[in-house]
Amino acid sequence: MDLEKIVKQIIDEVMRNQESTFIPKSDERSKRTVHFPEEFEMGVENPYKEEAIRHAQSITPARIGIGRAGSRMKTQSYLQFRIDHAAAQDAVRKDVNPEVIEALDLPILETRAESLKNYLMDLDAGRKLSDRSKEWLQKNGEKDVQVQILVCDGLSSSAVEANVGDLLPALTQGLLLKNIKVGKPLFIKRARVWVQDEVAQLLNAEFVISLIGERPGLNTDESMSAYMVYKPTDKTVEADRTVISNIHKEGLAPVEAGAHLSGLIEKMLQAKSSGVAFARQNNLQDV
């Protein structure tokens, strides 16, 4: 028997199997569609308490009841995990679409963070305006308003793109209906929460609210928070701020958040306080 011929036949057979099983042709690959449901499907085979698993799935976006293959996740669950992880990374790394800012007619300011790396590694860089933005704000910003609204990318550009189109008009309209003087909203790139303190002092604003992208997770990359503070100074700390978080389509809906925030701001203006001081005055019931 020709050993070389036998080896060649085996290699040819292996290559044919690989081509048919693992390496689809380009035209076949382009036709394949992988479906990823928005809600987790029941991945546990023959569950002991199926109703309990489905109830848990209905009240949390956590990965519950996805099942396993041996000691690992099933392929679809693993791929969905990778998709969610990639979306979270993109939310941090990419800038807000300029068309979103343009559509809302927002002046664009910048912090001292000159790059994304600088922004992520140096917290203080995102807490102060750049010299150019500070100069622009002093010359062009509206002074002595009751409320100044800031839109900040923070750690999720996706949150701004998904929510601000509905949230900002709802908030602004709610405040105007309450006869509260509102300054023209501003967009601040690579911003941290504390930048609101400097803006309020430069404009002599009584109250400032920052709509800022939250740190993205694997459940959503579109969550936004609203940080509010009454008359901030250089000595303002986190306890002086009031925050409403989880603003997104699966949490507190943007339009609903706008209405809620306008009512909350009206109360804080009347109380002349925010944060822990405001919560104490209201016995923690309205925060």
From TrEMBL:
<dbReference type="Pfam" id="PF05985">
    <property type="entry name" value="EutC"/>
</dbReference>
<comment type="similarity">
    <text>Belongs to the EutC family.</text>
</comment>
<feature type="binding site">
    <location>
        <position position="193"/>
    </location>
    <ligand>
        <name>adenosylcob(III)alamin</name>
    </ligand>
</feature>
<protein>
    <recommendedName>
        <fullName>Ethanolamine ammonia-lyase small subunit</fullName>
        <ecNumber>4.3.1.7</ecNumber>
    </recommendedName>
</protein>
<comment type="pathway">
    <text>Amine and polyamine degradation; ethanolamine degradation.</text>
</comment>
<comment type="function">
    <text>Catalyzes the deamination of various vicinal amino-alcohols to oxo compounds. Allows this organism to utilize ethanolamine as the sole source of nitrogen and carbon in the presence of external vitamin B12.</text>
</comment>
<keyword id="KW-1283">Bacterial microcompartment</keyword>
<keyword id="KW-0846">Cobalamin</keyword>
<dbReference type="InterPro" id="IPR042251">
    <property type="entry name" value="EutC_C"/>
</dbReference>
<comment type="subunit">
    <text>The basic unit is a heterodimer which dimerizes to form tetramers. The heterotetramers trimerize; 6 large subunits form a core ring with 6 small subunits projecting outwards.</text>
</comment>
<dbReference type="GO" id="GO:0008851">
    <property type="term" value="F:ethanolamine ammonia-lyase activity"/>
</dbReference>
<feature type="binding site">
    <location>
        <position position="214"/>
    </location>
    <ligand>
        <name>adenosylcob(III)alamin</name>
    </ligand>
</feature>
<keyword id="KW-0170">Cobalt</keyword>
<dbReference type="InterPro" id="IPR042255">
    <property type="entry name" value="EutC_N"/>
</dbReference>
<keyword id="KW-0456">Lyase</keyword>
<dbReference type="InterPro" id="IPR009246">
    <property type="entry name" value="EutC"/>
</dbReference>
